[in-house]
Target: Acyl-coenzyme A thioesterase THEM4
Amino acid sequence: MTPVRHPDAPAPGELLGAHYGECFGCGGEQPHGLHLQARAGEGVSITAEFTVQPAHQGAPGLAHGGVLATALDETLGSLNWLLRTIAVTGRLETDFVRPVPVGTTLYLEAEVTAVAGRKIYSRATGRVGGPEGPVAVRAEALFIEVQVDHFVNHGRPEEIKAAMSDPDQIRRARAFEVNP
Ligand SMILES: CCCCCCCCCC(=O)SCCNC(=O)CCNC(=O)[C@H](O)C(C)(C)COP(=O)(O)OP(=O)(O)OC[C@H]1O[C@@H](n2cnc3c(N)ncnc32)[C@H](O)[C@@H]1OP(=O)(O)O
Model:
């Protein structure tokens, strides 16, 4: 089925902000994280940027592949907010096309390609040198829709409780990407 953008999805160009302050991908309160910033795009698409820091190295001076996969995963995960669906990554297949040096900004783009029942198919690219620059990484993913119980049943109680009691309703909903 063709993916359908939720009528209340943020407008194209709007910054999404972090879905959870402690998130390793996007959280502002996470000192070790990527601090990735995502914006709503047209249709069911997202753009995002992330600058590789010295803490993200694998080989000397180069980004760790797992960190780049995280940036792709986070960007793809942000698509859930445009669908207003709660979903987790089931499968993430990544191609590493070029090495990415520390200090490089990765320009990411992701889109949902199809939805079939609980399965959400998506793809993403990460470019260097600018949003039109050469592709350094790309991924195809399958996200699976879950109920909020997924987090309540599997997450550590202290963090779940803290996220649930956030006075900001949008942040509370977005911690689990729930339709508020
Ligand atoms: C969400 C809030 C945050 C959003 C932003 C964060 C961005 C980052 C996103 C993440 O990193 S999420 C964290 C990493 N992912 C996980 O921790 C998920 C761990 N895996 C699970 O909890 C379960 O395996 C999962 C919920 C994904 C699936 O278990 P279920 O028992 O609910 O589903 P089921 O096994 O019945 O499968 C449902 C369908 O999906 C298919 N499927 C499930 N896992 C698959 C897989 N890995 N590969 C291919 N297909 C898969 C499965 O074949 C089936 O297809 P059919 O409906 O056609 O029969």
Q: What stands out?
A: The chain has one domain: 37-173. The radius of gyration is 16 Å.
